[in-house]
Write a sequence for this structure.
């Protein structure tokens, strides 16, 4: 039997299709549900991303600013970790540092007569340039094992002389041992009575502090002849 007209009309009003699902006039269709679900997922994803960024910041993973302590350039926004602080620049010249006082994080010249960050072949920094100096005015411009040779023009830092080398011109400053006795670089101060450091006075090697030879004059002897006995004492005669 054919369905009644009233039944068909009722079905159309309710939006029931041939599969028994509701369309217009009923609950949301499958396309709307899908859209709602997609929007919800995007919102959740966005929230998760924001949370991740906040977590990254709170754990100290954000790049460090200039002047903050560091162990590697990768920690710094500038990518330069110099003298254990994040630095604006590479600051790689021998006479500059990046951790000086209230200017930490900015590369600054080292003061005059400062030891360089890298070897300058005997020279200290001059406070005027970030590069190694090439002249000196005095021994204070040279590092520990060098002295300023003012006989050279321009004056230059020269390596100190070894034990036994002549030191008449520049004295102890020119000796690697820091002692100049009897005109030679000596291994010790050698200040005792009837002691010497030159072969001419002791008969031994230049630079070794030894008792002076018998008969050698020592002005500090109280005997009439002012001579030594060869054992580090004044002659009794």
């Amino acid at each position: 039997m054919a369905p009644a007209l009233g039944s068909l009309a009722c079905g159309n009003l309710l939006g029931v299709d041939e599969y028994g699902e509701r369309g217009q006039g009923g609950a949301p269709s499958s396309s709307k549900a899908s859209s709602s679900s997609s929007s919800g997922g995007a919102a959740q994803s966005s929230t998760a991303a924001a949370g991740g960024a906040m977590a990254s910041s709170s754990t100290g993973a954000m790049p460090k600013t200039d002047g903050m302590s560091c162990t590697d350039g990768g920690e710094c926004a500038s990518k330069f970790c110099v003298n254990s602080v994040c630095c604006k620049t590479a600051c790689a010249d021998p006479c500059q540092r990046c951790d000086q006082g209230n200017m930490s994080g900015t590369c600054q010249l080292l003061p005059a007569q400062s030891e360089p960050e890298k070897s300058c072949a005997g020279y200290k920094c001059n406070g005027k340039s970030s590069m190694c100096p090439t002249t000196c005015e005095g021994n204070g411009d040279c590092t520990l094992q060098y002295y300023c040779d003012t006989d050279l023009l321009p004056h230059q830092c020269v390596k100190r002389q070894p034990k036994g080398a002549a030191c008449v011109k520049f004295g102890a400053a020119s000796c690697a041992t820091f002692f100049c006795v009897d005109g030679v670089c000596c291994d010790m101060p050698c200040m005792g009575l009837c002691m010497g450091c030159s072969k001419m006075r002791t008969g031994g090697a230049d630079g070794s502090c030894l008792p002076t030879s018998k008969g050698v004059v020592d002005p500090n002897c109280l005997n009439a002849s002012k001579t030594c006995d060869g054992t580090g004492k004044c002659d009794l005669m």
Notes: The two ends are 162 Å apart (CA to CA).
